[in-house]
Amino acid sequence: MTTHYLVLSALLFAIGGVGVLVRRNAIVVFMCVELMLNACNLAFVTFARQNGSLDGQVIAFFVMIVAAAEVVIGLAIIVTIFRTRRSASVDDASLLKH
Amino acid sequence: MNGTIPAPTIEYGMLAPMLVVFGAAIVGVLVEAFAPRYLRSAIHLPITLLSLLISFVLIVWQWVEGVPTKAAAMGAIAVDGPAMFIWGTILVLAFVSVLLIKDEGHFVGAAAAVPGSAEEEQALYEGAAHTEVYPLVLFAVGGMMLFPAANDLLIAFVGLEVMSLPLYLLCGLARRRRLLSQEAAMKYFLLGAFSSAFFLYGTAMIYGYANSLDLAEIGASLGVVGGQDMLLYIGGAMIGVGLLFKIGAAPFQAWKPDVYQGAPTPITALMASGTLIAAFGALLRVFWVALGGLDWNWRPVFYGVAILTMLGGAIFAITQTDIKRMLAYSSIAHGGFLLIGVIATGSAPAQNTSALSGILFYLVAYGFTTVGAFAVVTMVRDAGGEAWHLSRWAGLGKRSPLLAGVFAFFLLAFAGIPLTSGFFGKYAVFQAAVTGGALPLVIVGAVASAVAAFFYVRVIVLMFFSDPAADGPSVVLPSRGTAAVVGLAALATVVLGVFPQPVLDLAHSAAQSLFVR
């Protein structure tokens, strides 16, 4: 029964996606993106089980590495902007428009 | 599972152009770690330029030897005609952009210092510089090469990230207007990560459908696997979202003006040319090789996206008062014109070849003009740094006719006036679209071009027929690098506009083999 895992993965992805859209704090937005990546991992592993191939499990490792690299870059950017503005809210950063 | 894993065969020769760039990037990191501060930029610059040059020579050599027709590295990376053409273009444009990047005064001395703090002043006083820019650029260029050549959705995802992650950082490193720069980096990062999550989930769905990530195997499984079409549709749509985001196509274009404006201008030049080219290469490969059998489903969607992108980009560009934002919206509109080429494919290979070669030519023409235009932007400065506001550009033609003339020429090339490269780019793509039966789209494209021509001409009128402001910006004497970039870009725009045949032939022979399967 792999369907349950797929449903869970879709739910996690949706929670992450909604979180990105509605949350204000850049760190939380970023955590929601990470949640989406982990939902992808769950889907990969589930499909690997369902299809009887190992590829999906290997892919999950790749995704973890990429996600780790993304954390490094993302935190660097968010911390820098926090030090400048004393706020990590994505609404405050609104100088660029028109 | 009998416990033995067969060793993969990797064609190092075929992958050498990419490996050289990545190798040089890693050497750059080591230089950063071990070389004394005062020597670093003197070491970085030759390494960066040389590696790009060597990589380009390797591609030319391989091209002369005969374009491979088989995917390398166990089918993971396709080194075929279009990929090699795209690699060559990206390398030349990256080389040119590095000449801009090496100029003093674009990048912050200490990115970690709070703007306006004593710490920042100290860093400026000591002449600190982030020489990490060079290896970051090389990693980004390597990613731009990997992304369009990926013959496997996982490799495409890795390439996408390797391309994007350094660019996120580079966006935040502007020396002036640091708040804007940091904001651009944050927006680009959050939206970029969001869109790559979509790409990845789409990849997972396709993996569930086809039990493979190899583009050719996915293509072969279309219509064979029964009962799981939903996975395929969701997967294809989500991968489309990820790719269209990188192109900056219409519903996903919001990041482009902000990021282009906030990023240091040389990095904007690199992004505007390289990222667009790489993303189009990847889009074409994924949607032709893997999802080509599904074109009845994705073609109408792309139809709408192309119309929205062209008109949206052109119309919003009119309302801009900032030169960099205007160029960003113009880049969005050009993305829409290129999408016409993506739609203009038929079942006949000849039609696909003509559409593909049109797109390749357009990408070369647009890439050079864009880099040239942004190079001009770096030279028009006032006390606060580069003068971005359009009102500051008034009367520039009277103060420095040469520079304003070159910029006007670039703008005319964007507009697609005959005798510029932009004309033949548009002509090639539109012609392929007319033969492919996408006439309504070409009409919309022509209307959007006319709208776009309006705001290009408006800038030209502003530069030549308005009185210069009393405290107007001064045009700095360009460094040799910047002058070379502007000259080269202008030359390419003229040559491709007057004598396009050699490059058209090259694009055509690159497109001849289409993408390997």
Your description of this structure?
The complex is a heterodimer of chains A (98) and B (517). Chain A is mostly helical. Chain A has one domain (3-85): Helix Hairpins (Orthogonal Bundle), CATH 1.10.287.3510. In chain A, 79% of the residues lie in helices and 0% in strands. Chain A contains three helices and no strands. Chain A is elongated and about 50 Å long. The termini of chain A are far apart. The model of chain A has no long low-confidence stretch (mean pLDDT 90). Chain B is mostly helical and 517 residues long. Chain B has a domain at 293-517. Helix content of chain B is 73%, strand content 2%. Chain B contains 20 helices and five strands. Chain B has helices spanning 12-34, 37-65, 81-101, 118-125, 133-149, 153-171, 178-210, 215-221, 229-247, 255-262, 265-290, 295-318, 323-343, 349-379, 396-399, 401-415, 421-435, 439-465, 480-498, 501-512; strands at residues 71-72, 77-78, 380-382, 385-386, 474-475. In chain B, a hairpin with a 4-residue loop joins β1 (71-72) and β2. In chain B, α5 runs antiparallel to α6 (153-171) and α17 packs across α19 (480-498). Chains A and B meet through α1, α2 and α3 of A and α6, α7 and α10 of B. Chain A: The chain crosses the membrane at residues 6-22, 27-47, 59-82. Chain A: It is found in: Cell membrane; Membrane. Chain A: Pfam families: Oxidored_q2. Chain A: Keywords: Cell membrane, Membrane, NAD, Quinone, Translocase, Transmembrane, Transmembrane helix, Transport. Chain A: GO terms for molecular function: NADH dehydrogenase (quinone) (non-electrogenic) activity; quinone binding.
